[in-house]
Design goal:
- By secondary structure, the chain is α/β, with parallel strands linked by helices.
- It is built from six helices and five strands; from the N terminus they run βαβααβαβαβα.
- The chain has a five-stranded parallel sheet, sandwiched between helices.
- Strand 3, helix 4 and strand 4 form a beta-alpha-beta unit.
- The two termini are 25 Å apart.
- InterPro entries: Flavoprotein-like_sf, FMN_Rdtase-like_dom, ISF_SsuE-like.
- Keywords: Flavoprotein, FMN.
């Protein structure tokens, strides 16, 4: 059985981002994979301290000196066959707690362990306001994945104006993604 980590961030557990997470998770589970949900807003995640003159233990051994929930989440991502990244959009970017986690992850994985390299991911950005900013957020997410050697299988913007057709599409995307994790991706990139 494949294992998919669905890592998401929004302070609103009943909003658009949570609905997107629910739909893609449902599709993944119904296609036969185990879903491991990680809600970053409910975790204790500190900001990078840039210790050791900017490159501390993250550069030396792929771990972080901060004793919070980061290491457990990182281990979950390492064990996953696939990762779905979902963030609410603020100021055309990921949420602040998502950025805090992502910055530390990038330092540990891109500079030392490369444990996440070659993982195929789905990126989802959810904007409840105007919807502007979703593409910039997805670009920022993908830029971070590239630093770590991961690959974006799909990039999905969800806004309040398209949610009626995008939420059901996320369910189908979850099923398709799981099938590709099981049977291979038919595209080279």
């Amino acid at each position: 059985m494949k294992k998919v980590a669905v890592i998401w961030s929004s302070p609103n557990t009943n909003g658009l981002t949570a609905s997107a997470k629910d739909q893609i998770s449902k599709g993944i589970a119904e296609a036969g994979a185990k879903v491991c949900e990680i809600h970053l807003n409910s975790k204790n995640i500190e900001h990078c301290r840039a210790c050791g003159n900017g490159w501390g233990t993250c550069n030396k051994n792929g771990s972080c000196v901060i004793g919070d929930d980061f290491a457990d989440i990182y281990n979950t991502l390492k064990e996953a066959d696939g990762i779905v990244w979902i963030s609410a959009v603020y100021w055309s970017d990921m949420t602040e707690c998502f950025k805090a986690f992502f910055d530390r992850l990038r330092r540990c994985d891109a500079t030392f362990s490369h444990s996440l390299a070659e993982k195929r991911c789905i990126l989802i950005a959810c904007a409840g306001g105007t919807g502007r900013g979703t593409l910039e957020c997805l670009t920022q997410l993908e830029r971070g994945l590239v630093h770590m050697g991961m690959r974006a299988y799909d990039r999905i913007p969800v806004v309040r104006f398209n949610k009626d057709y995008m939420l059901p599409a996320l369910y189908e995307a979850g099923k398709t993604y799981t099938d590709c994790l099981e049977n291979g991706f038919d595209m080279y990139y």
